[in-house]
Amino acid sequence: MATPPSLPTLAGLSWSRHKKPGFSTRVASHASGREVRVALMDYPLYEFEAIYNGLASNSTAAFAGLGANSLQSLMGFFLQLQGQFGTFLYADPDDNAVTGQAFATGDGSTASFTIMRSLGGFLEPVGWVTTLSSVYLNGVAQGGSAYALTTPNTLTFGTAPASGATVSADFSYAFNCRFLDDQMDFEEFMSNLWKLESVKFRSVKCWLGG
């Protein structure tokens, strides 16, 4: 599977940023006041919203702090993805790496595991592993030849971990996302200086189940 491009990191990105995890639940209410709820998703989708208060459309020194041609960089990225059609990787500045993250327990026969990270005690698959630094079984680091990473987020051992063995790892990751609109509204508020009031994008699932 080819690795999607990454959302450009631009100095004009400003506060505030929004991040909204969401589930899908079917609720059937009864006249008695009781209700039946069915969870349709085991893991959430995340919706993000960002604001760019400064984007330069040229490479003059006056706007060097925003990055030369940062407008073209972001607009071109959107165009290459054809709006909502393509996917890209977004590394959330506050949620992109873990150390010693336990995410599976061996059973003696299973050799492949979906790599996951915990957030406040909730364990969920990561969208796309960007770097896999170390892998451990019961806290013991494994040699690189003992396992392989298959994109986007599958760890496979040459020999299945023993029953009861804790599988953990150090890794960085990104959310695999798509834009929520087929248009972007860029505004030039000074000569060669632009802004983007809002850009919204949402994670897409790239693992089986849930």
Structure characteristics:
single chain, 210 residues, mainly beta, 2 domains, nine-stranded antiparallel β-sheet, three-stranded antiparallel β-sheet, 1 helix, 16 strands, globular
Notes on the structure:
The chain is mostly beta strands and 210 residues long. It folds into two domains: 13-24 and 37-90 and 177-203, no CATH class; 97-174, no CATH class. It has one helix spanning 70-80; strands at 13-22, 25-29, 35-39, 45-56, 88-90, 97-105, 112-114, 116-119, 122-125, 128-137, 140-141, 147-150, 154-157, 166-179, 186-190, 193-203. Strands 1, 4, 5, 6, 10, 11, 14, 15 and 16 form a nine-stranded antiparallel sheet that branches. The chain has a three-stranded antiparallel sheet with strand order 7-13-12, with no helix packed on it.
How many beta strands in the DSSP annotation? 16
Q: In sequence order, what are the helices and strands, one letter per element?
A: EEEEHEEEEEEEEEEEE
Shape: globular
Mean pLDDT: 94
Structural class based on helices, strands and sheet pairing: mainly beta
Tell me what portion of residues adopts beta-strand conformation: over 45%
Stretches where pLDDT falls below 50 for ≥5 residues? none
Task: Provide the helix percentage.
Answer: under 10%
Distance between the termini: 20 Å
* Count of helix runs: 1
Main pleated-sheet profile: 9 strands, antiparallel
Compute the CA-based radius of gyration.
21 Å
Count structural domains: 2
